[in-house]
Specification:
The chain has one domain (2-158). It is 77% helix and 0% strand. The two termini are 14 Å apart. It is mainly alpha-helical and 159 residues long.
C-alpha cells in the first residue's frame, strides 16, 4: 500500500511539474513573440499554420487534477496530506483565475484581426497579460515546492 501511495503522489507531482514546464516554455519561446507588437505579431496565433497550445493545455489540466486527487486519497492518513491539499487547492484557484481572466483576455487579444500596424493599446494589454501570467507561473512553482515537500514526507515515512 505504501508503494501505491508514493506512486500516485509522484505521478501527480510529475504531471504538475509538466504543467509548469509548458508554462515556462511558452513564456520563453511564444509569449514574448506574440505580445511584442499586437496585432502585427499575431501571425503565429492565426491562420492555417497557427500554433495550437490548447492541444497541450486542455488535456494536461484534467489529468493533473485527477492524479493529485488520487494522490490525496492515497495519502489521506499520511503526513503528506496537508501539503497535497495546499497544492491542490492552490492549483484549482489558479485554474479558476485562468478560466475567468487569462483565457478570455488571451482569446480577445489573439483573435484580433491581423494587421501590419501595431496597436499601442493592444500591445499594452498583451504585456500586462504577460506580467500577470508570470506571477501566476511563480505561484505554480511555489505550489510545486509545497507538493514536493509532500512527496518527501511520504518518502520519510517509508524509511
Amino acid at each position: 500500500m505504501k508503494n501505491i501511495r508514493t506512486l500516485t503522489l509522484i505521478l501527480g507531482a510529475i504531471s504538475f511539474i509538466i504543467v509548469i514546464g509548458g508554462a515556462v516554455y511558452e513564456h520563453l519561446a511564444i509569449v514574448p513573440v506574440w505580445t511584442s507588437a499586437v496585432p502585427a505579431s499575431l501571425s503565429m496565433m492565426q491562420g492555417e499554420y497557427a500554433i495550437t497550445p490548447t492541444r497541450f493545455w486542455m488535456p494536461i489540466h484534467p489529468v493533473t487534477l485527477l492524479l493529485l486527487i488520487l494522490g490525496l486519497f492515497a495519502n489521506w492518513r499520511s503526513g503528506a496530506r496537508n501539503f497535497i491539499i495546499v497544492a491542490l487547492v492552490g492549483y484549482v484557484m489558479v485554474l479558476l483565475v485562468t478560466f475567468l481572466f487569462f483565457v478570455p483576455e488571451l482569446m480577445a487579444l489573439t483573435q484580433t484581426a491581423y494587421s501590419t500596424t501595431v496597436d499601442a493599446d493592444l500591445t499594452r494589454r498583451a504585456k500586462n497579460w504577460e506580467v500577470y501570467s508570470l506571477i501566476r507561473l511563480c505561484f505554480l512553482i511555489l505550489l510545486a515546492v509545497v507538493l514536493l515537500f509532500g512527496v518527501a514526507k511520504v518518502s520519510e515515512q517509508k524509511a
